[in-house]
Amino acid sequence: QVQLVESGGGLVQAGGSLRLSCSASGRTFSTYDMSWFRQAPGKEREFVGRISWSTGSHDYADSVKGRFTISRDNAKNTVFLQMNSLKPEDTAVYYCAAGSGLWIGNRRRAGEYAYWGQGTQVTISS
Prior knowledge:
By secondary structure, the chain is an all-beta fold.
């Protein structure tokens, strides 16, 4: 029902900025929670941020609060992750994920999302 494709990854220096995009299929896009996760080599997939359909609010991991911003353009079926003040520890493969918008409360576990993109590599150099 939903297909996701990430883009915008690359190599930037610490302190720089990068914007990731996730293009989604389907006219039901606006009814889904959209989140970003990341996974570094040898690490568990980690929640980054979510934009909620049910509440219209945002939720961010403590590690990225104040630096990352998630937004969506429903007309273009696209979700964005604006990353500022990047740090070497932000280096990871970044994934977008989609789940039903009926969820109440925080939605931070990978298993709570049914649809995933293939990921885009983000590398931050010192």
